[in-house]
């Protein structure tokens, strides 16, 4: 189906299958200027002063995660997330691309499509031996960062990801709705019907505890000074950062999907607290940090099969030395990308040298070009949430824009499309 164009044009419902070994995390690497130094809080590793963070190409991390892993094709007649397929002519290179997006086909659509989201809180326990355990939990308090009576999980549940607030994008009122729906309305604003929406049916499961041996290749704890927090125990320690090898956690996540009886009609969102992933040995800060990612087991445009996402709820407000993140900013990145690229194989003309991508990338990952840039914050129930700015569909395929205000991202950073092909 061709997304852009006049309402009178007829569009095909044909589907197309593409398989590739890709998944999309947010990845940051760091350059150490000092060696690892003193141990604190049950042998957590102190982050040296002067660490410099720099975004790197996340495709390396993705290929390591999925290399050699066969795609898991969904059984016939198995449940699916609600999605549509499209065929899009790209003005940037004159080619036609095929892809799939969660929700209803936008052109002249006045219906609401509902997708099922299952929040799975993950309590990470880092076992140092001898009874020493550090815990990072989205279900436990961190009053010195979040204020009393709040947890990462409760704030996620009450956030603009799942509760409506008023959204204006590029001067256009896109409605009183959730951020994912507002973005979908915004990026297709010129062609949708007034009542077009993507809604979520949200279920939260009981927290699952994952215990890992600490200061091993699979799991480590680091600590930075000067951070918020006043917890005095061993849970959600001030300045703490849990780090788990991405391959280790991905195997755990896939196993939990089966154990919990989830299926491909649901999007499991695994929520961590002040914890990230590494690509390789967790003890080496040069392998850190993947703040979140989303994946598809089938990697098929025609049927993404079981999809899932992983995200840090970051209790600090953009103060941690290794990355810039706050509360749900990573989740808005990952949920937005899951919606727009559920198969992780919606190919686009190559773009790059921007956001978290210093090289070239060729898929419809709406968060990657704007990593580190924020949409105006939103306050709900007295808490101020931070949302990442996201790139519109037209930015990837080329102008003219069919997005709100005729621009190419939801807060107007991109005033033109991605331009010349990346080399």
Describe this structure in words.
- By secondary structure, the chain is mainly β.
- The protein has one domain (24-406).
- 14% of the residues lie in helices and 36% in strands.
- The protein has helices at 58-66, 143-146, 152-157, 179-187, 246-259, 329-340, 393-397; strands spanning 24-31, 39-40, 44-46, 52-55, 83-89, 96-102, 112-129, 132-136, 165-169, 172-177, 197-204, 208-213, 219-223, 240-245, 266-273, 275-278, 288-296, 307-317, 326-327, 347-354, 357-363, 374-380, 383-388.
- The chain has a 15-stranded mixed sheet that branches. The protein has a two-stranded antiparallel ribbon with strand order 5-6.
- The longest helix is centred in the middle third of the chain and has 14 residues, at 246-259.
- The chain starts with 23 loop residues before the first strand and ends in a 26-residue tail after the last helix.
- 52% of the residues are buried.
- The model is unreliable at 5-40 (pLDDT under 50).
Short recap of the structure:
With 423 residues, the protein is mainly beta. Helices cover 14% and strands 36% of the residues.
